From TrEMBL:
<dbReference type="GO" id="GO:0050660">
    <property type="term" value="F:flavin adenine dinucleotide binding"/>
</dbReference>
<dbReference type="InterPro" id="IPR006076">
    <property type="entry name" value="FAD-dep_OxRdtase"/>
</dbReference>
<dbReference type="Pfam" id="PF01266">
    <property type="entry name" value="DAO"/>
</dbReference>
<keyword id="KW-0560">Oxidoreductase</keyword>
<keyword id="KW-0274">FAD</keyword>
<protein>
    <recommendedName>
        <fullName>FAD dependent oxidoreductase domain-containing protein</fullName>
    </recommendedName>
</protein>
<dbReference type="GO" id="GO:0008115">
    <property type="term" value="F:sarcosine oxidase activity"/>
</dbReference>
<comment type="similarity">
    <text>Belongs to the MSOX/MTOX family.</text>
</comment>
<keyword id="KW-0285">Flavoprotein</keyword>
<feature type="domain" description="FAD dependent oxidoreductase">
    <location>
        <begin position="27"/>
        <end position="195"/>
    </location>
</feature>
<dbReference type="InterPro" id="IPR045170">
    <property type="entry name" value="MTOX"/>
</dbReference>
<dbReference type="InterPro" id="IPR036188">
    <property type="entry name" value="FAD/NAD-bd_sf"/>
</dbReference>
Length: 217
């Protein structure tokens, strides 16, 4: 999904935030406080002289009453360095390298460095992963002939191809990652507003409490 950048000087409001007397204007307002928005707030907050506001509700405590459903309301997301596409491999590797730094900064653990295996039926797809592994110097290993000794509790077909990443791979908790990114953003001065945005309107409208020179959706 492409990122949309609204024109200069826009307001947003939640339908209940009309308050012209104490308007706050930020350099950047980020709408959506999930995995992408929270990470964007963290990185944007490190730009010197940039004021950042992150807008989005918390995960509802009672699911039946929620107004929106976030893609980060879960506890397991696989992460690894070797992908079919080079772009994904580079972005994944850079992200994984930052996980421990963010955990240390915030005191929130979201990354389990337990390794990863990929199982493929087609030889050409497996060879493509091996080439990407070499290109990325990811230290993954072909265990197609010895997986049964390593993982006796699995039951794979004899003709399966298996790539194992022992380190710098595993899984993350999306909930805790969002918490960590938001905590780090707060540490750098970001303001978080726990509201659902209903409207974005030009800045010549004087009725709303928050405004941004840039709006990131």
């Amino acid at each position: 999904m492409p990122t949309l950048l609204a024109p200069l000087h826009q307001h947003w409001h939640s339908g209940k935030q009309k308050m012209a007397s104490t308007k706050k204007v930020f350099d950047l307002v980020i709408i959506g406080a999930g995995m992408m928005g929270s990470a964007a707030a963290y990185h944007s907050s490190q730009i010197p002289g940039t004021s950042v506001c992150l807008v989005g509700p918390s995960e509802p405590k009672v699911r039946k009453e929620h107004e929106i459903f976030g893609c980060w309301f879960d506890e397991g997301r696989i992460c690894c360095r070797v992908h079919e596409k080079h772009t994904w491999s580079v972005l994944s590797s850079r992200s994984i390298q930052r996980y421990r730094e963010i955990e240390k900064q915030t005191g929130l653990n979201f990354y389990s460095n337990v390794g990863n295996i990929q199982c493929l039926e087609k030889k050409e797809e497996f060879e493509s992963l091996l080439q990407m592994n070499q290109q990325m110097t990811a230290s993954a290993e072909d265990v197609s002939k010895k997986w049964n000794d390593i993982y006796p509790f699995f039951n794979f077909p004899d003709d399966i191809y298996i790539l194992q990443e022992k380190v710098n791979a595993g899984h993350i908790s999306p909930r805790e990652q969002v918490r960590a990114h938001q905590t780090a953003a707060l540490q750098h001065g970001t303001e978080i507003v726990r509201k659902i945005v209903s409207t974005v309107t030009p800045a010549d409208n004087p009725d709303y409490k928050y405004a941004g020179h840039r709006i990131l959706f």
